[in-house]
Specification:
With 369 residues, this protein is an alpha/beta fold. It has 14 helices and 13 strands. Helix 1 links the parallel strand 1 (3-7) and strand 2.
């Protein structure tokens, strides 16, 4: 069995954001097929790691990203545990990764969740050019890079000259491998919980609202999309908003409760909401990267209506008719897409689970390792 070490640079257990969930579920499934050790921060709940061991070597403060004492500490872990491969979550520790490799000769893989500099450029961070230089250099020196989307992989190969033989797919995955059979039961549960008549359509938006792209998308729903739906005669619906981190000016969305908006807050059973919904809304126009809500919603049998930016990185052939894409900021067309698909019959996207189920993903990753 391969002995793998993963460096996860921030708390991810329990998970609240899509990025945290990506790491948590990837490591859970990887730990079932390898002898896995994870180095992370002490703030993660170690008891939730059931398939691998966590060593809390990283500091809580930002100084962990330039802590030179980690060279000796991680080198010792690699040698003592006979590690075959180190996977570094995100490129931020590249300086450390290559010093460890020089000392130990261990295979060094980077797991990138986005082309990071493009994400920070889209959100207006002034230092993105430096990150671009650093990220590009990191990719060129790594033994291999795992990419969340074919677009990111193609960008690295065609724009940065990274050898295709060192580039591999590692999409955000789902725990199920087939179309769920309990959508009807889930709908009854959610309707009862929020007093929604069963003949009304359920539209869902979920996200961590302390992340600006999600907060902006929520404002778009409240100010651009919902007013268009309210003016449509004969459309009976509720929009359920799930997630934590709302700003004070929209706290609990109370003033929108008379406008078919229900704020459910953070829910631990988000899968039930995906299965209960008729349509998942994804009007995100910044932030970059694959939106995990899109992958999960389709896996649980729900149609997603998304902007172009919100659908970035998705395998649209695998998603089929379950993913409807509208140009960024064309809220008129977005509203029309909701209305036109409000009576769509729930169905499975053929081939989706072959690409996005963790079972299939880990089978492919083990071959790479």
């Amino acid at each position: 069995m391969k002995k793998v070490l993963v460096i996860a640079p921030y708390a991810y257990l329990p998970y609240y954001s899509g990025g945290q969930k990506f790491i948590a579920r990837f490591l859970h499934h990887l730990g079932q097929k390898t002898d896995l050790t994870v180095i992370s921060v002490a703030e993660s709940d170690i008891s939730l790691a059931s398939t691998y061991k966590i060593i809390p070597l990283l500091k809580k403060s930002f100084s962990r990203y330039y802590d030179s004492s980690l060279v000796k500490k991680i080198t010792a872990v690699v040698k003592e545990r006979g590690i075959d491969t180190v996977i570094w979550e995100h490129p931020y520790y590249a300086w450390l990764a290559f010093r460890i490799r020089k000392r130990t000769g261990v295979k060094t893989m980077i797991h990138t969740h986005n082309i990071e500099y493009r994400r920070f450029k889209s959100t207006g961070r002034w230092w993105w050019p430096f990150l671009k230089w650093y990220e590009k250099r990191c990719f060129r020196k790594a033994d291999g890079i795992f990419f969340i989307s074919p677009e990111d992989k193609d960008f690295a190969i065609t724009k940065w000259g990274i050898a295709a033989s060192r580039c591999f797919d590692l999409p955000f995955g789902v725990d199920i491998s087939e179309y769920p059979g309990d959508r009807a039961e889930s709908r009854v549960t959610v309707c009862r919980k929020h007093a929604i008549p069963e003949n009304e359509k359920i539209l869902l938006f979920t996200g961590a609202f302390n992340y600006k792209p999600n907060h902006d998308a929520l404002q778009t729903i409240l100010e651009e999309i919902n007013p268009r739906l309210l003016s449509e005669r004969g459309l009976s619906y509720k929009i359920i908003i799930c997630g934590k981190g709302l700003s004070e000016n929209v706290k609990n969305l109370r003033k929108y409760s008379s406008q078919n908006i229900i704020y459910a807050g953070f829910v631990s059973d988000i899968e039930t909401y995906y299965k209960a919904a008729d349509i998942v809304l994804n009007p995100v126009i910044s932030g970059g990267g694959v939106k995990t809500k899109v992958v999960e919603a389709i896996a649980f049998g729900t149609t997603v209506i998304s902007t172009e930016s919100g659908a970035a990185g998705m395998d649209r052939n695998a998603a089929g008719k379950k993913l409807i894409v509208v140009k960024d900021s064309d809220w008129e067309k977005f509203g029309e897409a909701i209305i036109n698909n409000s009576n769509a019959i729930s169905s499975s996207a053929a081939g989706f689970y072959n690409i996005y189920s963790w079972k299939k993903i880990i089978q492919r990753i083990i071959i790479v390792l």
